[in-house]
Each structure stands twice: as structure tokens, then as C-alpha cells.
Design goal:
Strand content of chain A: under 5%
Strand content of chain B: 5-15%
Number of helices of chain B: 6
Order of helices and strands of chain A: HHHHH
Shape of chain B: elongated
Oligomer: heterodimer
Strand order of the largest sheet of chain B: 1-6-5-2-4
Shape of chain A: globular
Radius of gyration of chain B: 21 Å
Largest sheet of chain B: 5 strands, parallel
Number of strands of chain A: 0
Helix content of chain B: 25-40%
Helix content of chain A: over 70%
Number of helices of chain A: 5
């Protein structure tokens, strides 16, 4: 399945996702201890796994954010971004439904907000945007592939 | 590069970076809790406008008709279990009615509490809102409901017969 749109829309969506992921990663990398607290507050992971998760997640966000900016890895990065953002939305939604009142932990302490249905919707919306990049960049890859095939056929014609 | 290769490459690079940072910096640890606020410390954001009350102080005033305990969690959680005699006023509620304000203003002290997660964020938020509507002494229970229950202090379950109206967040 793929979606055909003007390339400018895909570039804009990649830019937005990359910005969000890099913006989310940097404060966590700078202050991993505070992020451990945020992870623990979600009460989804065993306490002994929270520091490991808090150390690895920002790395995934940073690398996926950078990978979204390069044409060669944009689609894989968008898949990972969609999975991460959907997981964040589910984690926040379960916290809301269980009545756990907590900080989002999304962008570090400096820009912190409470988990709300707005933050759940924001994450879900970004996940959909990442899915759009996956589908739209797949279509552009196919077009590029066909163009290469066509060039090759033209070159091989006598 | 195929999609699978892209995903695997990004995962490998992320793991290398994350584990590398772990190796260099060691396992991250949460910052220590401030003294006296073992479970439920004031959040870093926002100005502090409400005072905190320790579990012991709160328990000492338990039973005083001039001291009201207010549960900031959802009505469903309130009904599951709450501090004995506490009122249910969810912090997420959009408006605090005149009947609520009147009731809370009559008390000498209002103590807000929640489940203590996220630095007792909802207790702080409600205490600040109560200050804003003229409740002179609204305090936040250090440790929240988990701390209260851990001390074996009185708790009960069921609806809130004293609440001015049914609380919906």
C-alpha cells in the first residue's frame, strides 16, 4: 500500500517528525536521571528496567530523528517513529484510564506538561503522520525505481 | 536499502549509541527525593503557592471538623478507596461550583491528596485552584494516599455523601 502525494508534503512531514524526535531526545540525553523518574511514574515497566529504557529510548529518538532527514533511511525511520509514537500514545492513555496523574516526560523537564487526552491525541496524530511518511515515501521510492528501470531500458535499446 | 535493512541499521545505531552512553555515564538514577517529601515532592515547574503537610500532621488533625480532606482523583478511584471522610473533587474538573467553594471556605484547613504519582501533580493543581477561589489554607498531603495507607491510617470506600454534587472530571 502506498500514497501518492506531492513530494513537498512528505518533506514537510519528515521535517516535523525529525524536529519533534530531536526535540524530545536532547533533554532526556542531557538529564537521564529525571527521565528515569518519568518512566517509573508510568508504572508499565519493572523498576529495574526503567533506567535501561530511559537510557535507550532517547538514543532511538535521536537516531530516528536524524535518519528521517536522509533519503536513504527516511522510510525505516518513519516506521520506527510511528511505532514509538503509537506506543507513547498507548502508555499515556493507559495512565489516564488508570487514574495515574503524571508528567508527560515527552520533552524533558523544561517543557513539561501533564499527561492529558490532548497529549495522547498529539502522540497518536504524530504516529499517523509517520505512517503517512512510510506510505508516501514508499510510493516515491517505487516511482524512482521505475524511473531507473526505464532509464536502463532506454540505455539498453539499440 | 530495503525497508528492513533501514530499520535494522537504525536500531543497531540506536543501541550502539544508547549502550555506549550507558557505558560512559553509567546507569541513570532518578534524582533523590527532597528530605521530608519522600514520596510526593513538589514538582519542579510552576510557582509554589500551597504548603505541604506531613502524614503525621495530617493524621493529627484527622477528625477535626474544621479540617477537610479532598481526594483529587477520579470519582471511580475515590469510590474504590479513600481517606475516611474525605470529599471527592477531581482536579481535572473544569469548574468548582459555588457550593463547593462555600463548603471549602468554611474549613480552617483543606488537605488535598492524590495517588502521589508525578510529584502529586493533581493535588498541587487543585490546591492552587482552591487558593485562587479564596480557600485560605489549602495544603498538599505529602506522600498522598499511598503514604496514608502505608501508615495504616483510616480509609474507607464508597460514594461521597457529603459532596455538594456528584463530581465528574
Amino acid at each position: 500500500m502506498s500514497v501518492r502525494v506531492h513530494p513537498a508534503w512528505v518533506i514537510a512531514a519528515r521535517g516535523v517528525l525529525a524536529l519533534v524526535l530531536l526535540w524530545a531526545a536532547v533533554p532526556k540525553l542531557l538529564d537521564p536521571g529525571a527521565f528515569v523518574t518519568d518512566v517509573e511514574n508510568y508504572r508499565l515497566l519493572p523498576a529495574e528496567l526503567a533506567p535501561l529504557f530511559a537510557a535507550l529510548l532517547p538514543a532511538f529518538e535521536l537516531v530516528a530523528g536524524l535518519a528521517l532527514l536522509t533519503r536513504f533511511t527516511q522510510r525505516g525511520a518513519a516506521v520506527l517513529a510511528a511505532l514509538m509514537l503509537a506506543a507513547f500514545a498507548v502508555a499515556m492513555a493507559q495512565a489516564r484510564m488508570r487514574g495515574i496523574d503524571l508528567r508527560c516526560g515527552c520533552f524533558g523537564a523544561a517543557l513539561e506538561g501533564e499527561v492529558s487526552w490532548l497529549t495522547v491525541t498529539r502522540s497518536a496524530g504524530l504516529a499517523v503522520l509517520a505512517l503517512f511518511v512510510v506510505l508516501a515515501s514508499g510510493a516515491s521510492d517505487k516511482r524512482a525505481g521505475r524511473a531507473v528501470d526505464s532509464d536502463a531500458e532506454t540505455a539498453s535499446d539499440p | 536499502m530495503s525497508l528492513l535493512n533501514q530499520i535494522l541499521s537504525i536500531c543497531a545505531a540506536s543501541l550502539a549509541l544508547g549502550l555506549g552512553l550507558l557505558g560512559v555515564r553509567g546507569t541513570p538514577r532518578p534524582p533523590p527525593e527532597p528530605a521530608g517529601e519522600a514520596v510526593c515532592n513538589a514538582p519542579s515547574e510552576g510557582a509554589k503557592v500551597a504548603d505541604w503537610v506531613s502524614l503525621e500532621e495530617a493524621h493529627a488533625s484527622f477528625g477535626d471538623p474544621q479540617v477537610l480532606f479532598v481526594d483529587c482523583r477520579s470519582p471511580r478511584l475515590y469510590e474504590t478507596g479513600h481517606i475516611a471522610g474525605a470529599l471527592s473533587l477531581p482536579a481535572e474538573r473544569e469548574e468548582i461550583s459555588a457550593a463547593w467553594i462555600s463548603l471549602l471556605r468554611e474549613a480552617r484547613t483543606v488537605i488535598t491528596y492524590c495517588d502521589a504519582a508525578g510529584g502529586c501533580a493533581s493535588s498541587v493543581r487543585l490546591a492552587e485552584r482552591l487558593h485562587a477561589v479564596g480557600v485560605a489554607d489549602a495544603r498538599i498531603l505529602t506522600g498522598g494516599l499511598p503514604g496514608w495507607l502505608a501508615q495504616g491510617y483510616p480509609a474507607e470506600s464508597g460514594e461521597c455523601p457529603r459532596c455538594p454534587e456528584q463530581s465528574e472530571p
